[in-house]
Write a structure and sequence with these properties.
Layout lengths: L7 H7 L8 H8 L6 E5 L4 H19 L8 E6 L6 H7 L5 E5 L2 H6 L3 E5 L2 H9 L3 E5 L3 H10 L7 H6 L6 E3 L5 H13 L1 H18 L4 H14 L1
Parallel strand pairs: 1-2, 1-4, 2-3, 4-5, 5-6
Helix pairs in contact: 3-4, 3-9
C-alpha cells in the first residue's frame, strides 16, 4: 500500500529564493536590463545543449527582427555546473541573448514565456506559472525506438497529469524556429490561449495535491510508525 500526500516540488518552488525576491532584485543580481524576457531552457547535458541551442538562436533572431519584439531579451537558464563557453559558441555576438546560471526558477518567473526542453523543467515552469512551449530534439533512432516501446500521447509531465494538451509539445522535426516563433507569439498575443494554459496550470497544481506535501508525508510516516 502507499499513501499519496502531494508533490514536494510545489513547496520547493513556492519557498524558493525566486519567490522571495522582487523583479528589481533579480535584475540587479543578474545584471539584466528591465526588458521583457523569453526564457530558454536547453537542458544541462552536452547533447541537449548542442541539439537545442542552434534552433533557440535562430528563433531568437526571428523574434528579435520583428519591430514589436525588438526590445525583448532572451535569457538562457543554465545549470550551475555549466560554463559560459558551453553557450558562447551558439550565442556569438547576439547582444539580446544572455545566460544566467543556477537560477532557472527566477528566470522562468520573470519571463513572459518560456521554451523548455522536456523533463522536470516543464513541470516546474507550470508550477511557477509561466506560459511555455516544450521542445525536444534527440537522435532520430532513439526517438523512434522510444515511441515504439513507450505508448504515451505526451512527453511532458504536465500534459501527462492532465491527460490532454495544456501546452504545445514540439518534438523532433516539429521543433523548428518558425514553430517556436508561432507558439511564443501565440502565448504573448492570444489572451484566450494564455488564460486557458494558466487555468490548466492550476489544475496541475490541484492534481499534485497542493502545498505542504513534505510536512504531510512526515505526519503520515509518524502515524504509520505508531500503528
Amino acid at each position: 500500500d502507499f499513501i499519496y500526500k502531494g508533490n514536494p516540488l510545489i513547496d520547493a518552488i513556492d519557498n524558493s529564493e525566486a519567490f522571495k525576491e522582487t523583479r528589481e532584485e533579480f535584475l540587479a543580481k543578474t545584471g539584466l536590463p528591465d526588458k521583457p524576457m523569453i526564457a530558454l531552457l536547453a537542458g544541462s547535458r552536452n547533447g541537449e545543449i548542442s541539439s537545442m541551442m542552434p534552433t533557440f538562436m535562430t528563433f531568437a533572431d526571428k523574434l528579435h527582427a520583428l519591430p514589436e519584439y525588438s526590445d525583448y531579451r532572451f535569457v538562457v537558464a543554465a545549470a550551475p555546473a555549466r560554463s559560459e563557453a558551453d553557450y558562447a559558441k551558439y550565442i556569438g555576438g547576439r547582444e539580446y541573448v544572455s545566460v544566467v546560471f543556477g537560477q532557472s526558477y527566477a528566470v522562468m518567473r520573470n519571463a513572459k514565456a518560456a521554451v523548455v526542453n522536456s523533463g522536470t523543467a516543464s513541470l516546474e515552469c507550470a508550477l511557477i506559472g509561466t506560459p511555455q512551449v516544450v521542445a525536444y530534439k534527440g537522435a532520430e533512432i532513439n526517438f523512434l525506438i522510444a515511441k515504439m516501446i513507450i505508448k504515451i500521447q505526451y512527453i511532458s509531465l504536465g500534459n501527462l497529469i492532465l491527460d490532454r494538451i495544456c501546452f504545445r509539445e514540439l518534438l523532433q522535426y516539429y521543433f523548428t524556429p518558425d514553430n517556436v516563433l508561432y507558439e511564443v507569439r501565440r502565448m504573448i498575443e492570444d489572451e484566450e490561449y494564455r488564460s486557458a494554459m494558466l487555468s490548466g496550470y492550476q489544475e496541475i497544481r490541484d492534481a499534485l495535491g497542493g502545498e505542504g506535501a513534505s510536512a504531510a508525508v512526515a505526519r503520515a510516516m509518524i502515524e504509520e510508525l505508531r500503528k
